[in-house]
Amino acid sequence: xxxxxxxxxxxxxxxxxxxxxxxxxxxxxPQEICKELNIQPCSVRSVDAFSEVDLNSDAKKEIxxxxxxxxxxxxxWVYVQKGKKWIGIASWCGMDGGAYRVLSSKHNGYxxxxxxxxxxxxxxxxYSNTTRQN
Length: 134
What we know:
The chain is α+β, with helices and mostly antiparallel strands. The protein has one domain (23-120). The chain has helices spanning 3-18, 31-37; strands at 48-53, 62-67, 74-82, 85-94, 101-107, 110-114, 119-120. The strands form two sheets. It has a four-stranded antiparallel sheet with strand order 1-2-3-4, with no helix packed on it. Strand 2 (62-67) and strand 3 (74-82) form a beta hairpin. Residues 1-25 have low confidence and may be disordered.
């Protein structure tokens, strides 16, 4: 095997072993969330950094997005669908443009989220609204 191919194989194996959960953008935003947060028009284009991520490994995607602004920068939200209802399980003030990163570490069954100001962890009901530096 050529040295280059072997190196690429090692990089692929390492990346797969250390990858964080997949994040992919969708084209919809649930009407229920739009009504709750007064997002108009109710569209993914109305919010920043919209993504769906399976944060608790239940094969259902939770929604993470940034919206609004103000003195704290941009407000970030995490919603989980329970039955037919969307429930907010996190919000934090963060960087404009929706900068955050889902980590590979977990607490109480949910992946931790790096807000770029600290890491928030799921406490069994919601993500903590305080951040701790790594």
